[in-house]
Amino acid sequence: MTSMINKAQGLGLSLITRLAGSDVLDQLKLRKFVEKSLYQGSKAGFRALTQTQKAFKPKQISQQRLPRQQKNLFDLSLTEEQQMTSEAMSQFAQEVLLGLAHDADQAAQFPESLWQYVEDLGLNYYALPEALGGVATEQNIVSNVLIAEKLAEGDFSLTAGLLSTFSVINAITRWGSAEVQSMYLPCFAEDADITATFAVQEATPAFNPYTLKTKASLENDQYFIDGEKTLVILGDLADVFLVSADFNGEPDMFVVQSNETISIKNTPAMGLKAAETATLRFNHTPALRLGATDFDYTAFLDLGNLMWCAMAVGTCEAVKTYCIKYANERTAFGEPISHRQSVAFMIADMAIEIDAMRMLILNAASLAESGKPFHREAYLAHLLCAEKSMKIGTDGVQILGGHGFTKEHPVERWYRDLRATAILQSGLHA
Amino acid sequence: MNLQNPKKFKMMIDQARDVAINVLRPISRKYDKAEHAYPKELDMLASLIDGMNEGGEGINAGAAGAGKRGDTDNEGIRNGTNMSTALGIIEMCYGDTGLLLSMPRQGLGNSAIAAVANDEQLERFKGTWAAMAITEPGCGSDSAAIRTTATKDGDDYILNGEKIFVTSGERADSVVVWATLDRKLGRAAIKSFVVPKGTPGMKVERLEHKLGIKASDTAVISFIDCRVPAENLLGNAEVDVAKGFAGVMETFDNTRPLVAAMAIGCAKASLERIKEIFKDQLDPDYSTPYLHASNLTAQIYRMEAEWEAARLLMLKATWMADNKKPNSKEASIAKAKAGRVGNEITLKCVELAASVGYNEDELLEKWARDSKILDIFEGTQQIQQLIIARRELGKSSSELK
């Protein structure tokens, strides 16, 4: 384990060195982003794991909104920045996440060593607007889903954990009122230790995110939250929560800080184990309403679902890669099992459906960042990804046969994690 | 990153849709019933389309537009003829797939000419309506095993053999025939020849009676000592064993996305109709979570998701062709996905509409018959899976058979 961590830290540095030497950095304003993340990364010292209540010092800022992107031609090519980020995330996934995933799943614990990388990767600065010291100058929803996809090639649960704070910053930047933004965005920019997550799922069969049992109330200009949320990613570690609650019969989003009105129970699930899923009980917890007049609950859900969908695609890529290697090495009846059409066609179908899912996600993400309606596209993407990613998950175990059923191989973990794609509604944010 | 249809094709798409609704749909059932009757209404339409194409970016209703790779002198990203042709085909097949396949001068043979002909041949065969003859009674998917021979004799080749499933084989001006120069040399020796209609020794033996696309004639053609000038051999006459089959197969990289576009157009007809039939039960805003939607609604949403996936995969393959990116795998992925999804959707729509869908009063049952061929010709579902699997697994055709 120690050697793994050393190796991982070595990689983090080499990644950054490689980025720093790159010519495209200056062209793309990326240098500022990398240097900033390096500065922040080295400034942050040893991180205590015991959750202490953070004091948030609000700093008055004007309401931030990132501008939309303009599009014209049909174009699937990535910008240089997107290529570089994708490559870096992919390498990080292969060399760090993939190696940590098995033990993290077994221990049902998000590895401590990963926190350093959250800072090294500079994810928060990706999400933060330029005015607050980040690098976001326009809506980058395509880039965000690409980050999610590439990281999830390493591990689904660890990616969920890595992206929860990033997602909360995205959500606050996109939807937050001036009050919420003033309270939190400067803190996220200055203190890389702050972690945040979503509390949106409820323990209701066939959970409908438009019908919430958790209630918000307003007393003397102060909102309060009462109710229970489940499948909260890294719930035990978060300083800030975005909570969905019914307010006057309508679903809405609220921001709460970790405090004594919230009680926590670990609730391990079929998968997502490394994300330390928990159930939170809010007992008259003081809250701020997240949104301003432009808040759109459906778009809020969609931008979360797209992240899970993109992660499902990344994990399906991992399944396919693993199955190809296995099917080419494993022999039966005197030749590799990949020489049998029954096996080979399963892999062909994986390739077809992975690309199919990716196209739907990118279409929705691209519409979203250009300010066009994208709910239909996001709905259809979620529907397709829910079905196809699980099919790939189950076929992955099938190709390995009995071996796939054991913990000797990662396909059973991917199988458990991929079941979440259909179930989660929001919980991250692009 | 943008996956929306480019604005510059909007007018062309709208025109194609107008044609589909006002020209093709009204005669759709007529030629489904009158199998083998020539749809004379198409002559005028074809001339109209030719005229529009002379003027620039018109509808490429068929395969002729494909194969033109992107211009070399143009910097940056292109949305070119492969994509516009596919977008036109979607709309035309939304009208009628059989009639699209019968469009004069838009045959798959034209696609082969566009893809492999040299400049002199391109000029000489300009304006011809070329059908494509590959399949034989004893070989279908294994096109490398064809038995039709081409024997060099002076300045000519002499063709002998029998071809089946030749779309527009009776109506076209010429047929692009695949034949082998030497069976011992395998696939490398397979070349394609343009054989003009009326060449002595070439005879249309009969027309098939089919499950669907009845408006399109499907011919059996025999070649008995059929003499063709050597300059009608498309591309290079050398037998390059190293390069092998690649030359002929290149055509498929361009035509498979177009057949995918046909499947998408055909399924679009069914999907739109079924949404119209159930409009009072559907939620146009997609505001009901999937788990809470009625079974009927959920099935329609699911079809829509699959249809969108097929459509975008197809556009990806054409986008790659327009931008000179190798797209063999993506062309097969598009064809495999669109073929299966198109068939599934058209059949499901008949099921959902029940007797209304099964009766001939509606076109739903016709579209369900038409769609089947689109998962078969230009490489069956299983052939596409083989191609994709070989690429993914790094296997040769002798290993993964």
TrEMBL record, chain B:
Needed co-factor(s): FAD
Domain of life: Bacteria
Domain called Acyl-CoA dehydrogenase/oxidase C-terminal: residue spans: 243-391
Acyl-CoA oxidase/dehydrogenase middle domain mapped to chain residues: 131-226
Keywords attached to this entry: FAD, Flavoprotein, Oxidoreductase
GO MF entries: acyl-CoA dehydrogenase activity; flavin adenine dinucleotide binding
Record bears the keyword Oxidoreductase: yes
Pfam families assigned to the protein according to its UniProt record, in alphabetical order: Acyl-CoA_dh_1, Acyl-CoA_dh_M
Entry keyword annotation includes Chaperone: no
Family: Belongs to the acyl-CoA dehydrogenase family.
Protein name: Acyl-CoA dehydrogenase
